[in-house]
Specification:
- It is a single chain.
- This protein is of the alpha/beta class.
- The chain has 11 helices and 15 strands.
- The strands form 4 sheets. A 7-stranded mixed β-sheet has the order 2-8-7-6-5-3-4, sandwiched between helices.
- Strand 9 and strand 10 form a beta hairpin.
- Helix 9 packs across helix 11.
- The model has no long low-confidence stretch (mean pLDDT 91).
Amino acid sequence: MPFIPHTDQDVQDMLAEIGAGRIDDLFDEIPHVLRCGELTDLPDGMTEMEVTRLMRERAQADGQPLCFIGAGAYEHHIPAAVWEITTRGEFYSAYTPYQAEASQGTLQLLYEYQTMMAGLMGLDVSNASLYDGATALAEAILMAVRLNRKSKSRRILIPKSLHPAYRKVAHTIVSNQNIELIEIPIDCGSGRTNPEELSRYQDQDITALVIPQPNFFGVIEAVDQLTDWACTNGAMSIAVVNPLAMSVLKPPGQWGGKGVDIACGEGQPLGIPLASGGPYYGFLTCRARHVRQVPGRIIGRTVDLEGKPGFTLTLQAREQHIRRSRATSNICTNQGLMVTASTIHMSLLGAHGLARVAEASHANTRGLVERLDTVAGIKRLFNTAYFHEVVYQIDAPLDGVLRTLAAHNVQAGYTLENDYPELGNALLICATETKTASDLDHYAELLERVVGLQQATKCPVQPK
């Protein structure tokens, strides 16, 4: 809570200095008919101590449940320094850096972000972010269509193992631009895209192939084979990745024989807290030869007349800067505050720190799997390599299981019944580095007890 140090005398002194009798005089240009008058229903003012106590009570009413939900938004530890620095005035209130001479700090930060993100993805160029992971994918698809001039079909292959929200958002954005999204089915045994499914599109005109890593089920995809297929068949390759996972997995720039053309995704795992669904930000990286088709902004580093390093906006390929007909995107924000947090987060942790977080998340998920594999009434659906999410089939009504665990202060996972009804009572479960061994034990024991009771009663749970 900010501290406002002005006393009544301070206010009167400032008003006297500018020749005003009272604060209302500062707004005398507003017609009286538009003024709301006195606010009579406001409660009495509270002291700082009373307000702090009230807000703590409200926060406690929400609870602090153990969260095992992933599905694209992940609970990770964020060092206190990240948001203490991010919310400093020079970052928190900074405006879009149109004037380089007045925005060197913001521009340098974005340049450092681009450098780190390009390195993490194993590619040459990064933009200064997009709205979120889903719109980043849509922008990557539009970019691939512009780049692949040999392809006339505007057909994009998208695995069903990709995040369902990403597929929906991409369809909404690109479908009215005569771009066709073709869904590739899931291999029911492995939970990933079977490269053999692509054989039906052999020698057809395909503009691009989307490759998730890990996919929505947490499964590790056969990215080398998929990338090589795209290259062999004249299609662009678009990776959709979890950036934290790229600290321990092979980066997109090294997939297959030549690497992918474009890599994008959601930046939330890099220092952005779970906050009622956002705000988050999308990232997009690519090969240097594709740079002129990148949406959003790119920050460049140069030197001034005195040889001192400086930073500036460059290659701004959006309609506000160039002719509308030549613009690649109408993206009008770079989600700068979120990018600031991610830049500070990556700087504090470093490459080794990010890898340790990823390894700890994977280790906790393995530990949870070992516990859950012994629980009667549930079965792991895919027996393939995973990062930090797994899918289990539950032999009980999921609605009742989830509500019962929530009553015990545990968010048990993300139900796949609506997005993947063919998988039955399937639950996507995630564990990150924030979980302890006792958390994993508590979850497994509680789930075993609840599923056992559901099976014993065989009483269908009524929906809310």
